Amino acid sequence: MNSKDGQQINKEASAFTSTGLLLDEAYWNSQYIANTTGWDLGEVSPPLKAYIDQLTNKNLRILIPGCGNTYEAAYLLQQGFTNVTVLDIAPALVAQLKEKYKGNPHIKIILGDFFEHEGAYDLVLEQTFFCALNPGLRKDYVAKMHALLSPNGKLAGVLFNREFEQQGPPFGGSKDQYEPMFEKDFVFKTFEPCTNSFIKRKDTELFIILIKK
Hints:
The chain is of the alpha/beta class. The protein has eight helices and seven strands, in the order αααβαβαββααβαββ. It has helices at 6-12, 25-34, 46-53, 71-78, 91-100, 129-132, 138-148, 175-182; strands at 62-65, 84-88, 107-111, 121-127, 149-160, 186-193, 205-212. The longest helix is centred in the C-terminal third of the chain and has 11 residues, at 138-148. It is globular, with a radius of gyration of 16 Å. The two termini are 27 Å apart.
């Protein structure tokens, strides 16, 4: 789930029961059916684009969980990457994606719950999926990421570096809050404020590159 202006997202998320710790298929599916996707950037995230541009191994096994409208996946395919998997819990969205990428052997589109997904990946790209989850699931997220990554695999992408006034999603946080969650299972290569964020997210994002221990 890519994410746009914080206030707009929170208004659209008013129907979400954030006390529940399960991924809410009905909630996310309704957002795509109604096209109330205020988090959608409409393009590949600039920090992710810059990261992808420096990757040289086009055969990396790449996962994008909570993939949304797959701008990052589309960019990967344009750049010649051959093994991209996208995962989302919203059936309406996944049906659209399967039609969009029909016949393309380089991308797998999976409907499912991230926490139930099985696989082995060299790289997982994070585009604020972490911050769309109830904070009570964050430890489970870290454990699942560790399980999905191959030895020396990387988790790279964007986390929000801010709090939100209204109840999420998205749910905010800070570097000081996030680092203790990841430090047991990952080596920190990069965990710093983004310098190339989308204009509406300037000074509100962290870029991470974490290597599986």
